[in-house]
Amino acid sequence: MIHHEETIGEESLFTGRMIQLKRLTVKLPNGSTSTREVVVHPGAVAVLAEVKPGSIVLVQQYRKPCEKILWEIPAGKLEPGEAPEQAALRELAEETGYVAKDVQLVHRFFTAPGFTNERLHVYFTSVVEAGEVHPDADEFVEARLFTRDEVERMLENGEIEDAKTLVALYWWRQNGR
Question: What does the record list as GO biological process (predicted)?
């Protein structure tokens, strides 16, 4: 049987520009106490854009925590008070230059619930127009179009290692888009 853990103490260990690290003291269902280290995150969005039938845009970006370059769908964190749909449209335009009028929710999920509350909203759009790329000052990304066959090959060869991108691409594959 699953039981709730009551938070009875909280200590802030670190506050950065994107995350906060807290140590929580919790009361366990059996009455004893334990600690939980939690990364508090504002949430994030990602968008799979089918730029033309059978072709999507991915961005290549160096990810320091992984020490490697990854192919991903455009993504970024939510700004305070920003609606996820608007954030998805903003991130798509910033990272790829493609402008969409609307997006459709694919999935919403917790990225790593064992240590963070980050919730990721994944969207899809197929109505886009080309525009100007304008990434954040500390963001260096390269956007490229991939056909369905190229995506299938990348999936089969394990070339896509980013979870949000895998979720989106498997959804795209399953829904015959």
Answer: nucleoside phosphate metabolic process; ribose phosphate metabolic process
